[in-house]
Amino acid sequence: MESSSAGVSYKKADASYFDKRGLSRYAGVWSLWALGVGAVISGHFSGWNFGFATGGWGGMLVAGMIIAVMYLGLTFSIAEMSPALPHTGAAYSFARTAMGPWGGFLTGLCENVEYVLTPAVIVTFITAYVNSILGLDPVYSPLLWIFFYAVFLALNVFGLELSFKVTLVITLISLAVLVFFWISAIPNMDFSRWALNIGVGPDGAAIELPEGNGDWFPFGFTGVLATLPFAVWLFLAIEQLPLAAEESVDPKRDMPKGIILGIITLMVSAFMIVLLNPSLPGVGAFHLSSALEPLLDGFKAVYGDSGVVILGLVALTGLIASFHTILYAQGRQIYSLSRAGYFPTALSITHPVYKTPYVAMMAGAAVGLAVMLVIWFSLGAEQGGTVIGAVLLNMAVFGAMFSYIMQAISFIILRKKLPNIERPFRSPLGIPGAALTVIIAVVTLLYQIQDPNFFKGVVWVVVWFAVAIAYFAIIGRHRLILSPEEEFAMEHKEAASLA
Does the keyword field hold Cell membrane (predicted)? Predict the structure, then answer.
């Protein structure tokens, strides 16, 4: 079957092709909720707090609200699209139906960058925590990276039920840790003295106000906009939830509920952590603006240093939850593009017993680890660790922002082009909500460009894209398979042309 307008060709695979790529259904509403919340929750444990240096407390709060609006527009859009197009491809699937094979492939590439590199960044944070808690020499960090990848790949490979149970348990533990922190912090908070202890120095950089009681917006509205990229960490990766569509028991009913419950949970948690973490005596917004372990610092402020090992292990739970769930997403994302022929089809073979995309997960993990090891051994332990944390983080956010733009555009196109497909859930924000998502994502990218680490990341993302696009242009587009995503798109393209 040919599609000359897009320059691609398809072949219809026989039953044995899909038998080797079968998935099993297990996930209900709460499993989906845990998958979405678990992927994001590490961003409430660390990372978000660097925004205090660019916006102060008020800037961080308002930036968080703006980013929350972006994610509301995005999550309501995907809550509509995912049950209407209940395929593992998620973002690629939405864009494929709306914008054709090239649009689908480019959107899939954006998500691929995010899901391959984000676990690499998180595992460096996990290793830093473990080194700090146990007093290990950082020179051995690569061994810990390999250990954590091996353990959580095994949990993801050996059974869907096991993977979702682990996800639910560690997500609940992570949230319980956060709730425990909120309860501990409220009686001790001194908001004006500590959360408002940032001023602006003669060079325009943040300085500490010894008595606190500073401005809510020390850097003005420009500071709010400059803080948008940091606020993204409070919600980054909630969009991975639709990747579980073909492993959900009833995606048309459960997927919208899981997504909406997830974003509500995260909005409540984000507000509480932004309010309470910097309000504790001895912590403060200025200290947190450069802190690598903000939640651990908050616990120390309340309970002292005596239980630092236990508190450190407690603070690790959020990072572990996100690492585990994004490894899940990484596997499904690579699997879906491979099953349809955009990536080599060998990557989509599933385990004959456990029905999990183990080849895709192992390949994605190998690429993430390889990138980390090359950086580490090229630059040395100290500089390598910094580059992994900063450059790979920016690469992941870059891929995420572009995928959000493409998904929101896909939503608008599908509303206009395919108004009559079954939509078990309709976004209450509609096209205006999707348009807001595009606008805020573009503004966030523009301010992210001002980070010098961003440019280093962009260069490597461009290389990644160039290699993948060359493969698709020369080989992949002539070997596409009529997977469920592709068949749905082809059928509805014909229906739209006849309407």
Answer: yes
- Rounded distance, CA 105 to CA 112, Å? 10
* pLDDT range class, residue 3, cuts 50, 70, 90: very low
Tokens of 416: 């206009």
Query: What rounded mean pLDDT belongs to the chain?
Result: 87
| pLDDT above 50 (res 287) | yes
d(CA 52, CA 41): 19
Structure tokens at 364: 């994605």
**Treating both helix axes as pointing N-terminal to C-terminal, what angle do 160-185 and 29-40 enclose, rounded to 10 degrees?**
60
Mean local confidence (pLDDT), 86-97: 87
Domains of the chain: 2-498 (1.20.1740.10)
Within 10 Å of residue 418's Cβ, how many Cβ atoms?
Answer: 18
pLDDT in tens, 164-188: 888 899 999 999 999 999 999 999 9
- What pLDDT does residue 4 have? 43
Q: How many CA atoms lie within 13 A of 74 on its CB side?
A: 32
CA dihedral in degrees (129, 444, 461, 475; nearest 10)?
120
- Provide mean pLDDT across the span 329-354: 91
Both tokens assigned to 215: 């401005």
pTM of structure: 0.90
pLDDT of residue 1: 45
User: What is the mean predicted confidence (pLDDT) over 408-414?
Assistant: 95
Q: What is the three-state SS of the chain?
A: CEEHHHCEEEECCCHHHHHCCCCCCCECHHHHHHHHHHHHHHHHCCCHHHHHHHHHHHHHHHHHHHHHHHHHHHHHHHHHHHHHCCCCCCHHHHHHHHHHHHHHHHHHHHHHHHHHHHHHHHHHHHHHHHHHHHCCCHHHHHHHHHHHHHHHHHHHHCCHHHHHHHHHHHHHHHHHHHHHHHHHHHHHCCHHHHHCCEEECCCCCEEECCCCCCCCCCCHHHHHHHCHHHHHHHCCCHHHHHHHHHHECCHHHHHHHHHHHHHHHHHHHHHHHHHHHHHCCCCHHHHHCCCCCHHHHHHHHHHCCCCHHHHHHHHHHHHHHHHHHHHHHHHHHHHHHHHCCCCCHHHHCCCCCCCCCHHHHHHHHHHHHHHHHHHHHHHCHHHHHHHHHHHHHHHHHHHHHHHHHHHHHHHHHHHHHCCCCCCCCCCCCHHHHHHHHHHHHHHHHHHHCCCHHHHHHHHHHHHHHHHHHHHHHHCHHHCEECCHHHHHHHHHHHHHHHC
